[in-house]
Every structure is written in C-alpha cells, then in structure tokens.
Amino acid sequence: MYQEPAKPNYDNDINKLVSYYQKAYKEVLTLIVDMKNIDAADNIYQRQASVLRQIEVILTQLNTKNKAWCTEMVRQAFLDGQASALLTAGLATTLAEAVQDVQFSMLSRNTVDALINDTYKDLLKATNNTSEQVKKLVQQVTSEVLRVRAMQNYGLNTIRRDIARELTNKAVANRLEKDGFIGIVDKAGRRWSTKRYSDMIARTKLSQAHVQGVRVAGIERGKDLAVISTHNAPDECSGFEGMIISMNGLTEGLLSYQEIYNSNKCFHPNCQHKVHLINLDLFPAALKEKHSRKVAALPHKPLKARIKPLDKIKVPSKETVKNHSEQLEMLI
Question: Is 70 exceeded by the pLDDT of residue 16?
C-alpha cells in the first residue's frame, strides 16, 4: 500500500553551510577594517599584500569546508531518496526497513559523485567571484587610506573627512556586503549575496539529489512511475502536485520528470517538491483521481497534450526499466 513519507528537513544542515560564508565574511571584514588603523609610518602596500594573502587563506578554507559539506549532504539526500522510494513503492513496510535495504551500487556511486561535483562547482563559482570583488575592495581601501594621509599633510581637512566617512567600520562593512560577498549576478542583473546564493544552491541541489536517489532506486528495481509531492505551493508548481509521471521517459502517455524540469514550471531552483516512487497497482484510487483532476486543470497545453488517461497507460516491464540502468551507467 502506498505511504507518503515525511518530508525530509535539511534546514539545520543548510544553515551550517550558510554559516561558513558568514564566518568568512566576519574574518575578511576584520582584516579590511584594520587596514585603515595603521600608523602613518607603516607601509600600506605591505599591509595590503599581507591582507590579500590572509583573505586567500580564508577563502581556501571556505572551499574546503564547502567540499566536505557537499560530499556529506548530497550523499545523505540521495540515500534518503532511495529509502523513500522503497517505502512508497511498497518494497518496504517501514522507513527503517527501507534504509536497511538501500543498495549503494555503481550507478548510485557514479550519480552521487556527479551531483557532488556539480554542487561544489556552483559554490566554487560564488567563492571565486567573491575573491575577485574583495580584492578590488582592498585596493580601494588602500587608495582611500593614502588619500586621507595626503589630504591631512596638505591641511585639506574637509576633503579628508569626506573620504574618512567611507572608511568607518559601518561603511566598510556595508561595502563588503554589497560589493564584496556577492555570489553571482544573474542574467537579470540581480546581485545574489553569498548567504542567499549558498542557501538557494543547497536547497536546490539537495532536492535534486533526493529525486535522483528515487530515480536510481526505481531503475534498479524495474519501476518507472512516481507521483509529485503535495504541499499546497503558492506558485505554478501547485498545478503538478499529485501528478503521476515517468521518471525516465519510458512510459508513453505520461509526462517525464525531465520534461517538467525543462519547462521550469516545477522542480525549479529553490523548489520544495519531491517525487515518490509508486506501484500503480497499489496506488489508491483517490490519488489516481487527483492525478486525473490535475491533468484536466493543467493550463500548459503542450504538456497536457502528451498525457493519456491512466487506463490507457502501459507500464513498462521491469526488464525494460532495468535495461535503462545499463544505458545510464555508460553515460555517467
């Protein structure tokens, strides 16, 4: 009998990743703020070089922590997806039993490795961008410190005070947050702070890892069908909640996971939706009716035209689905 599992909660783990960026921000801020406090006799360029070296160390340590986080959490989300799949497809009676029955095959290992590398690459992009922006800020602060000294020597106190305002602790902190710790600038020109960007990447990639865990567990057990989770989303995703789909595009007459993902109508960045592997013979009639209602109400005509009534669906054989596993192993 179909059982919908509890929604996995990775909030604490995601907050841990975000905290790595917050710690790095505070450490970098301390170094930059301290630059303006050096004595007039000190060599500002030597201080600049020292600060840049220390910042490089901080960001390298950040990357190391990020890689460890990716390795642990992506694998965990994938395994959670596999266990969830066994439970919802009726292949285990309890979640504890499902966890024990999870098999970490070569396909699983290769899929997880690819997911880890993809997640780390996205986080690395943010760190590299931050590194470039912080270097520019350090150079700007160096220049402004030199200008303050020059104005003081020439007695131009009004101009000196104007420049000094940009070197207050609060001003430097604002500049570092606004211009330094920026993960990405997207196609629309929006600036994503490292905090916001890392949170989005973590949520998106852990959801994808969970989905792939479900998918691989299904392939290895000859099952292709899944249902999209329901949690009353306020956006377009709600139109797909409760819809039965083909995880691998092997079931004619149902939308595939990849089709829906490519449409960006569901499974988009920050999307909370998961998929649950199902055995159509064990799937409750009420939930089959919900699928039919969702299909009837679907406003996206190109997608809707692809869907057949459930009684017209021919579920692929176990052998057909398992053969797909061999094709995937050659591609990964």
Answer: yes
Q: Quick one: 185 and 304 in the same domain?
A: no
CA dist 83 to 72, 209, 233, Å? 17, 13, 24
CA 120, chain centre distance (Å): 10
Q: Which domain holds residue 194?
A: 11-199
Q: What helix, strand, coil percent values describe the chain, rounded to 5?
A: 65, 5, 30
Residue in 208, 218, 212, 240 with CA at minimum distance from that of residue 227: 240
How far is Cα 321 from Cα 324, in angstroms, rounded to an integer? 5
pLDDT over 60 at 250, yes or no: yes
Render pLDDT for 214-243 as a digit per residue (tens, 0 to 9). Answer: 999 999 999 999 999 998 888 889 899 999
Nearest to 33 by CA among 46, 20, 45, 51: 51
Q: What is the CB neighbour count within 10 angstroms for residue 240?
A: 25
